Amino acid sequence: MINLQHKGLSIEGVQGHNRQVILKALHDLGTCSRKDISIVSGLDQATVTRAIGPLLEDGVVEEVGLVKGGRGRRSINLNFSETGRHILCLRLQRRSFSISVFNLRGESVVLEEFAIPKGQPATDTFNDITQAMELRIADFTQMDGIGIAVPGPFLESDERVILITESPEWQGFDLISALRSQFTELAFYSTHDAKAAALTEWRHSARKSGSKVLLYISAGQGIGSALVIGGEVYRGSRGLAGEIGHMSIDIGGALCKCGNTGCLELYASRIALLRAVRERATKRLPKEATFTDVVDAYTDNDPIAKEEVNKVACYLAQGITNCINFANPDLIVIGDEYVRFGESFLNVIKSQVEKALLPSVYRSITIELSALTEDTVLKGAFLDVFAQTYLGATRDTQERTTIDAIRKEGEIR
Ligand SMILES: [Zn+2]
To answer: Would the pTM count as exceeding 0.90?
Structure first.
């Protein structure tokens, strides 16, 4: 057993620490034996067995089947409970919201998406959200917590969405606080969508490839990013780190709601892309063309779709180059809706980035599209709640400022 008592930790403290170490090992290993956990955690097998007891009783962990061990011995494997406990996650986007319920293994057992009609008042959308959440919560006997992922800029320390470009109806609406007051009996955690997705990408690819610094770019309805350093999401002093969407790529460019000019999001978001395509309406891509229409036309080599999507790729490449020069990542994963444009889109980004960097810097970086088919934001929201509920992760929070104070600071325009 790890001896922490000399550091002033109580017996309960030691037991709590051991429990977290064991759950972390199980979270990383998946189905495994008590012996596997003992090897990975560094705790002796008796300690592991003792600590697992209450976790089995509480339905956090369950025994799964008999497996043959060495020398013909049979042992019982363990995993997190498949059906006993759940975590509900909500993802808010500009034009939709989705809800997923996960079991403690991180498997999504429910996934629903709801459209948000353009211009619908925030109070109506809030009612739609709470109604959908209540229905789902009622379906499960044990809900351990709720995770919500929102677009940025999001002051994580204050749990406050400052600005959702193209969605003025959310300005000044204290969404997280309002949700909290609706679901007072449940633990509630909020996070920025790109940070959530980055966590999922790190768990699935960077951890396996041995990447030290992952830069995740989320490109779709909004443009966001997040840095994961050694498995930890870098949050910044108030949780605002990674706001690549509001990094300028043109000092003389259009004025953004954030106050800056030429923000990347104004040129590279799905909304900007659709606007550009619709302005040049053709028979193939008429004024009411959807994002899927643009993806199909691009895949079919439609000249206008090619030109406009390639422009977006160049804008993104500029933003990515700026990030590389600043943060020196070794792996860059581009995720969200733009993954649908595929390898040719990625190749335009790569060739632009290559032109803008020193050869030795470019060679040290892998740039790829997300290969995950699940919703990485919802999964990341789950991982965030899970880590805070079971693995002892903590998040710095400051005293929340009032909405009036934020307005006075000029953050709400
Ligand atoms: Zn901006």
So the answer is: no
